[in-house]
Each structure stands twice: as structure tokens, then as C-alpha cells.
Specification:
Shape: globular
Radius of gyration: 17 Å
Strand order of the largest sheet: 3-4-7-6-8-12
Number of domains: 1
CATH architecture: 4-Layer Sandwich
Strand content: 15-25%
Number of strands: 13
Structural class: alpha+beta
Order of helices and strands: EHEEEEEEHHEEHEEHEHE
CATH class: Alpha Beta
Helix content: 10-25%
Distance between the termini: 18 Å
CATH superfamily: CNF1/YfiH-like putative cysteine hydrolases
CATH topology: CNF1/YfiH-like putative cysteine hydrolases
Largest sheet: 6 strands, mixed
Number of helices: 6
Length: 241
């Protein structure tokens, strides 16, 4: 388990899993937490139970669809519900929020008093659709008092994209121009950490902590869809203390 190195350790709990541990067989070995990738459902259930044992409140999950829908989970949130969305926000101290990734960028958000938390699945499609802005709009805390943690994701040396992806980002935010590096084949290397950080800065979030480990280049520790195609998923979680 990875733990965010940010100034909120006393008021929120947070973690990000790796592929290490668990009972899933190849190609999902070992700590796969996704039900939708073709893994044995009993193995996934075992892995999720193992994760739940490390978290003091029930974990809630999403069916991620690479959009910009954000779920507001209130005090009476149905923990058996798995809505289609790519971010979830709460003020409740009765649930832990989870999003899954295998190259996409996990972003955890919290107010500095720990009363508001959110988990965001930042693949390039949600990012270009302003999912961070949609999520931060739910916070009542001033944006200068919101902290962000960016977890393991595809690194800038591995994230090759076409001109159409670059055009979409630049059309939304001109600041994104310097997050793309032209290649001789006419494509670009994109820095998803820079893209998210630039958006957070524009939104007024001043405290951004980054755990920049490339999922593609670390097969022993991380699942990577771009590297392997069929693979498991890690999870990043946040909850109020």
C-alpha cells in the first residue's frame, strides 16, 4: 500500500494499492480489485475483503466510464450502489471513496480540516472534460484550503497520444501546450501529471502532492492497461477520520 505524503494525515485516511499481494491469477496477479476485467469473481471478492480489512469504514465503488460525472455521497448513501461516474465526493465520515486505475491518474482531494473528501478518476477523457472542476465545485471550503494528491499513473515517457488528444486539451486550456512533447512520428508524449496540476492550479488549488511512479515501466508493482492490455486494477481510497 502507498500512503499519500501530504499535510492531511491527521484528519483523513488515504491509500493507493499496488498489484502486490492478493489471490488473483495471471494476468490479474495478484491484488486485482476490479470486477469487470474478466478475473475470477471469488478472487476479486477476496482481494476486496482484504482491502476492506485495512479501512475503518465501508468502501464505496464506482462503475467508471471515462466521463465527467461526479457523485455526491450523502449521509444515507447506499453502499451497495455502484453508479456510473468517474468521481465521488462526500462530507460523511461513514464511507471510504474508491476509484480504480491501471495507467489513468488517481487524484484524491480533501479540505484542510478533513471535513470534505473526494476521489477522482483522471484518465485523459475525464481530464479534458473538466472532471476536476466539476468535483471541486462541490467543495464548500475555499479552494486555497483544498489539497490534492496525485497517485501512480502512466509516466510522460510512456504516454504517447495523437494530435487529436493534444488539440482537445489545448482548446480547453491554453496552459496545456507545454504538457505535450512532439515526436518524430507526428505524435506526442503527454504528461498527465502536468495536465492535472495545471488544471488544479487554474482552479485555485495551491497544495498538490505528487507520487509520480510510472505504472507502465514498473510491471512488478503496478497494473498497466497500455503495457499489458488485459490486466487488473489498483484502487485509490480516501475517507474522513
Amino acid at each position: 500500500m502507498l500512503r499519500p505524503d501530504w499535510p492531511l494525515k491527521e484528519v483523513v485516511g488515504a491509500l493507493s494499492t499496488t498489484r502486490e499481494g492478493g489471490v488473483s491469477a495471471t494476468p490479474f496477479d495478484g491484488f486485482n480489485l476490479a470486477c469487470h476485467v474478466g478475473d475470477d469473481p471469488q478472487a476479486v471478492a477476496h482481494n476486496r475483503a482484504q482491502l476492506q480489512a485495512q479501512v475503518p469504514v465501508p468502501i464505496v465503488w464506482l462503475e467508471q466510464v471515462h466521463g465527467n460525472t461526479v457523485i455526491l455521497a450523502g449521509e444515507q448513501y447506499d453502499i451497495t450502489h455502484t453508479p456510473q461516474a468517474d468521481a465521488i465526493y462526500t462530507r460523511s465520515d461513514q464511507i471510504a471513496l474508491a476509484i480504480m486505475t491501471a495507467d489513468c491518474l488517481p487524484v484524491l482531494l480533501a479540505s484542510d480540516d478533513g471535513q470534505e473528501v473526494a476521489a477522482v478518476h483522471c484518465g485523459w477523457r475525464p481530464l479534458v472534460a473538466d472532471i476536476l472542476a466539476e468535483t471541486i465545485a462541490l467543495f464548500s471550503a475555499p479552494r486555497s484550503r483544498i489539497h490534492a494528491w496525485l497517485g501512480p499513473a502512466i509516466g510522460p515517457q510512456a504516454f504517447e497520444v495523437g494530435e487529436e488528444v493534444r488539440e482537445q486539451f489545448v482548446a480547453r486550456h491554453q496552459v496545456h501546450l507545454n504538457a505535450f512533447k512532439a515526436q518524430v512520428n507526428g505524435r506526442y508524449l503527454a504528461d498527465i501529471y502536468a495536465l492535472a496540476t495545471q488544471q488544479l492550479t487554474q482552479l485555485g488549488v495551491q497544495s498538490v502532492s505528487v507520487h509520480a511512479q510510472c505504472t507502465v515501466s514498473n510491471p512488478a508493482h503496478f497494473f498497466s492497461y497500455r503495457r499489458d492490455g488485459q490486466c487488473g486494477r489498483m484502487a485509490s481510497l480516501i475517507w474522513r477520520k
